TrEMBL record:
<dbReference type="InterPro" id="IPR010221">
    <property type="entry name" value="VCBS_dom"/>
</dbReference>
<dbReference type="InterPro" id="IPR040853">
    <property type="entry name" value="RapA2_cadherin-like"/>
</dbReference>
<protein>
    <submittedName>
        <fullName>VCBS domain-containing protein</fullName>
    </submittedName>
</protein>
<dbReference type="Pfam" id="PF17803">
    <property type="entry name" value="Cadherin_4"/>
</dbReference>
<dbReference type="InterPro" id="IPR013783">
    <property type="entry name" value="Ig-like_fold"/>
</dbReference>
<feature type="domain" description="RapA2 cadherin-like">
    <location>
        <begin position="129"/>
        <end position="198"/>
    </location>
</feature>
<feature type="domain" description="RapA2 cadherin-like">
    <location>
        <begin position="29"/>
        <end position="94"/>
    </location>
</feature>
Amino acid sequence: NTQAAIQQLKAGETLTDTFTVSSTDGTTHTLTVTIQGTNDAPVLAAQTQAVTEDGTQLSGHMVATDVDSGDTQTFSIAHAVDGFTLNADGSYSFDPSHASYQHLAAGQTQDVVIPITVTDGSGATATQNLTIRLTGTNDAARISGTDIGRVVEDQTLSASGQLQISDTDDGQAHFIAQTATAGSYGSLTLGEDGHWQYQLDNSKPEVQALQSTDTATDSFTVHSADGSSHSITVTIQGQRDNVVIGGVDVGVVKEDVSAVTGGHLVATGESAEFVPLQQRTPLGNFAMDASGAWTYTLDNSRAGTDALKNGETATDSVTITHTDGTTHTVTVTIMGTNDAPVLSAQTQAISEDGTQLTGHM
């Protein structure tokens, strides 16, 4: 039964084996044996293949043997497998870019085990597995959502937003958290869920230097678990800062000696300009131009000025205004001096031997 000629017999095929036998007297006779074939099941070899996700399409051929000479072979699978195509002759192809395998992260493996059956012409079958080991590659995350914000110097100091992320790779659809990452004007905090908050550092000189017509931007790069990057940009709007007025804001004059004093006020801020002013004060006159240069002239003819004794002082105060509305006070001290008495001449009339004249200078 181990002879190839016998094993090659299909069902319904026969072979004959003929023998000549002799009696003791030499008489011969022919003995014929008919060998009837039966179907032998095909033998199918298992296969293992390796492929990379999103790589080149895999192709191959299942190999079956059958000792029955010329027997037909038909290959089949019981259930469809994503990305896999099997032809009746045993040739196959596998598409590693199929959506069902996009969940694999870089380096992650999955064995796709496909039972394949071969059937011969008599209906005998054999089944073996085709195993395809699929190695994942990184699929870039897709990031969307709110990635811009706006803050205002001295007013709105924080901004926030929500990023959305999708990633077909298993376990990759989240962000790498950041805590108070420093930028040029503030800091950014990002959660794994994509929620972010920007905090403006309003004390920074760079922030306070912004004028109301100025804007600046702070940009941050955030990353998802697979390394995909995205930018968050925050616009900082400058704001008009209250003017600080300094410079010379006091002066001294002296009755009948030095009638004029002056100085120069200095404003720090978006504008150095003042509202020009000319004002009559109780004891003199004040004038200031747009640059902040001012003069005060004492009016010695005023009763209040002339009434000052030596050693006495008085003050004249003027409120000036910057173009942004900020006010400031300029104060002048008036020092009194001694005024000599004024004696008026008199003329009187009298008669000789008349009444005695009396009077007062």
